[in-house]
Amino acid sequence: MRYRMAVGTLCAALTLTASAHLTAQSKKPAPPVENTYNTNTWEPGDAQRIVQQVRHQLLTLPNYGVFDSLSFGIQGRTIVLRGYASRPVLKSDAERAVKGIPGVASVDNQIKVLPTSPFDDTIRIGVYRRIYGQPALRRYTGAPVGFGQFPSVAFAAGGITNDPPRGYHAIHIIVDRGHVTLTGVVDRESDANIASMQANGTSGVFSVDNELMIAGRPARKE
Questions:
Q1: What is the Cα–Cα distance from 195 to 135, expressed in whole angstroms?
Q2: For all residues of the chain together, what is the average pLDDT?
Q3: pTM of model > 0.85
Q4: Alpha helices, H only, 20-76
């Protein structure tokens, strides 16, 4: 029996929205236990377990923050990692974590590492403050808005990329050479529109791509 699976987006709310669609192509007798796995796919129960484990591993990466966005898909028994990492360590950590899951044959790591840029760091700070300082959007983080009167050594040495805000953030802010992409999950479309307007109003921003999902609506399929 062959199956096809599509997996959705790892959201900025630190909630990975993944939908697995298993479609039977033919009906055949169940194989012996020793032949449960073949080189192309997993059995349905194993596929659901692996999706859950990939989701968990990515969500709990210590370097995954508000300025990153990860997603994954499945091709056969290969996990395809996609998205954006503000630091190279996140890309390598994500691949290492997923490779260790039993049943995963290989990992195709397509995560893009964003360029190091003081200009982009300035935009990250500006967009972050405008979005999370907006009263209508404050509920999407539990962290205090702002970066303190005395930034850390990491902040002073390398900017906000090296010392991002900690804690829960439902809206993730991806900045690539002045272009901003918003990912994550919000409660209503009006909140997504407010976030987009706040980002657009930030000095130095060239464009804004609003990819925020609305809670309760079907996830985009890849």
A1: 11
A2: 80
A3: no
A4: 44-59
b/e per residue, 62-75, with b = 16+ CB within 10 A?
A: ebbbbbbbbbbbbe
Q: What is the mean pLDDT of residues 67-84?
A: 94
Three-class secondary structure of residue 105 per DSSP: coil
What confidence score (pLDDT) does residue 155 get? 63
CB 76 within 8 A of CB 41: yes
pLDDT at 154: 56
Question: For residues 129 and 184, what is the distance between their CA atoms, to the nearest angstrom?
Answer: 17
Domain range annotation of the chain: 118-214
DSSP conformational letter for 174: E
CB 126 within 8 A of CB 204: yes
- The C-alpha R_g of the chain, in whole angstroms, comes to 19
Which structure tokens are listed for 33? 């236990």
Q: Are 193 and 186 in contact (CB under 8 A)?
A: no
